[in-house]
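Consider the following input, taken from an annotated entry for Wbp11/ELF5/Saf1 N-terminal domain-containing protein (Dreissena polymorpha).
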Amino acid sequence: MGRRSINTTKSGKYMNPTDQARKEARKRELKKNKKQRMMVRTAVLKGKDPLKLLEEMEFIDQMEFNPMEAPKLNEKVLKDKRKKLHETFMRVFRLYEKENPDYAKELFKANTDYEKKRERLQVHYEQVKVAERVQLNEIPLPDMPAESEQLSAFPIPGDIPLPQKGILKKISAYRKVYKHTSFLHLNLVIGQLGLMHVQFEQGY
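Applying the prediction step yields:
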């Protein structure tokens, strides 16, 4: 199907010259308004900081994937906000791809780093949630290590008698001399006491 003639209406009726001129003016006006809207959108996109958009998306991800605290907003609301921010970022990125390719490369790298951080955050969140659902009795215990052949070849008896005295305790070489000296000293003391008793009875 080709373009419809401006001299006829949608139903195929012929249009008078006044309506044709009005239609042409309307068409030019719409085209002009479209250019103005595109200029306004470009100016708005240039006014947005793409790195700031990434920071806002990171903040939303931290709220969504926080295992310790439930998000204050609904999950659907968070996803919609992140989707809109990401779409805005991509429009800004495509704009700079045409006007400033070097800056567009930096934005591409920043977006890649953001996606990696978001993936790690999501994996950590899922691991914590799985760990919370696991019961302690469901965790398998490790197997006992098998005894080596070298140790099993030499059986160790279980009834080994313990020593009664310390094996490191040494007997002093002066023990007998000390005991003999103490015995003599005791005899001398007893003898002196007996002599004093006899002298006391005799009146000395």
